Amino acid sequence: MTLEFRGYPRSDGRTGIRNLVVVAYLVECAHHVSREIQYPFREKGVHLIGFPGCYPNEYSHRIMESICTHPNVGAVLLVSLGCEGFDRFGLQTSVSQSGRPVETLVIQENAGTQNTVNLGRTWIEKTLSDLEDQPRKNTPIGELIVGTICGGSDGTSGITANPAVGHAFDRLIDQQACCIFEETGELIGCEVHMQSRALTPELGVEIRASVEKAAKYYTTLGYSSFAPGNADGGLSTIEEKSLGAYSKSGTRSISGLIKPGDVPNKGGLYLLDVVPDGDVRYGFPNINDNAEIAELIACGCHLILFTTGRGSVVGSAVSPVIKVCANPETYRNLSGDMDIDAGRVLAGDSELDQIGDEIFHLVLQAADGLQTVSEKLFHQEFIMTYKSFDPIGPSCLPN
Amino acid sequence: MLQHRKFLRLSDEDNVCVACRNLVAGENLNLTAGLNVKITQDIPIGHKIALKQISENTTVLKYGVPIGTATRNIAPGEHVHVHNIRSDYHVALHNKDQEWS
Prior knowledge:
The structure holds two protein chains of two kinds. By secondary structure, chain A is of the alpha/beta class. Chain A has helices at 31-38, 58-68, 88-97, 113-131, 161-174, 191-197, 201-221, 228-232, 238-246, 289-298, 328-334, 344-347, 352-367, 373-376, and strands at residues 4-9, 15-16, 20-25, 46-50, 73-80, 102-106, 137-140, 145-150, 178-182, 254-258, 268-272, 303-308, 321-325, 340-341. In chain A, the strands form three sheets. Chain A has a seven-stranded parallel sheet with strand order 10-11-9-8-12-13-14, with helices on both faces. A four-stranded parallel sheet of chain A has the order 4-3-5-6, sandwiched between helices. A three-stranded antiparallel sheet of chain A has the order 2-1-7. In chain A, strand 1 (4-9) and strand 2 (15-16) form a beta hairpin. The radius of gyration of chain A is 20 Å and the shape is globular. Chain A starts with a strand and ends in a 23-residue tail after the last helix. In chain B, 0% of the residues lie in helices and 32% in strands. The radius of gyration of chain B is 13 Å and the shape is globular. Chain B contains no helices and nine strands. In chain B, a hairpin with a 2-residue loop joins strand 3 and strand 4 (35-38). By secondary structure, chain B is mostly beta strands. Chain A binds chain B through residues 154-156, 158-159, 188-189, 215, 218-219, 223-224, 226-228, 230-240, 243, 309, 327-329, 346-349, and chain B through 2-5, 8, 10, 18-21, 44-48, 62-63, 65-68, 80-82, 85-95, 98.
C-alpha cells in the first residue's frame, strides 16, 4: 500500500488535508456577528475561530497568524469590531501574502450587525464556490504533522489508548512524519527519561528545564493539571497521570523542543512547551483541552490524536480530531463520539500494537478526506487565552 | 470466550497493580504460581490495588518508577488512592465528598 494521501498544496510548500474557510473574530465584541456569518455554513467546511481579548498580545497574534495560514485553511474572513487592540492590518497582510483569499469586515465601518452579517455571508458563498476548484495532489505521509493530547484521563488511559498512540507515533515517525506531544505540566516526573531520549545533550537540558518551569508554575498557581474526574477514574497523583500521558510519545528520539507557533520543518518527534515564560502573568496556562489543541494546530498539526478515559466529546476547528477511547465502559456509553476503541486491550481482545496500527491507518484515511466522528458531529471548538513566551533557544532544534 | 483480564502489573518492581475491570472485595489476584493477593475492598476499573505491604512514608511504584508516597500503612489487597497516598509534587484535586476510604 502506497502511503500517500490526496492533499491540497499551498504556496508555502506545505499541503493541507482539508480546504476550509475560516471566519475569525478579532475580539469578543465581534463574536456574535462572526457566528451569524459562519453558522449557516458550518456543515460546508466553514469554521469559526477567534481571540476574545481587546488588549494586544504578541502570542495571540502569532497563533492567529499561524492558524489563518495553516495548510488546512483555504480562505479567511476576518471580523473586527473596529476599536480593538488586535492588529487586523498585519494579520490581513500575512494571510494575503500566503496566497489565500482574505477579506476583513469592520463592523463599525459597515453599518453594524445586520449589514456586516449580510456582507460576510455573501463573501462566504462566493469563496466556497471558488474553493471548489482547488487542486489536490498525491502527497507522501511524511508531509503530515500529527499532534496528540489526552483529555478526561483516568486509570485506563495510560495502559490502553496512550501507549497505542505511542505505537502509532513510532510508525508515523518512521515514515518521516512529524509528531508532536505536549503539556509539560503533565510530564512531571518524566523529565529525566525524556532527557535520555533527546537528540543532543543540550536539547536534553532544555527539555528538563521546561518541565521544571512547569512544576514551578503550577506550584505558584496552587493547582496541578489535575481534574476531579481524573481521581474518580483512579489517578491519584500528577506524576502518575504524567507517566500515563508520557506513553503517548512512543519510543523514538526527541528531535526538538518547540513553543506555540513554531512549525517543525523536518520529520521526527517534538515536545511542545505550553507553559508561559517569566512570571505567572495571565493565570492558568491551558484552561481546557481545546486551548492546547489550538496551540498544536498553530504548530502546523494537520490532525490531532485525542485519547480519553472519562469521555471527552470535543473536536476542533481547522484540524480533525481522532478520538481514541481508553476505557471500555466509556466506549459503551459514548461510542458515537469515538473513532477507536482502545479499551479492548483490557478484555484481552486486542494487543496494543494492533490498536496502534488501527490508529495509524485511520490517520492516513482521515488525511485522504475521511471525516472523523467529531467532524461528522460538527464539533468545531476553539479557544485561546493570553500568554507570553520567549523564543526557543538555539539548542531546542538541533537539526 | 476470552476471560477479561482482572489486573495489570506494569512492571516487576511495582507494588501496585491496576484493575482492568470493576473488582469486588474477596476476589483473588493470582500474581505468579503460588503467589496470591486477596482484594479487601471493591475496586473500580482503572484504580490501583496494593500487591504487598506499603509502609507509611514509603514509595509507591508503578511503571517501575515512583508515583507518590504512602500517607499511612497500606496492606496487600487494599485500594491505593488519594486517601492513602500523596504526590511528591502537588496536591491532586478530587471531589471531597467522594468516599474512597
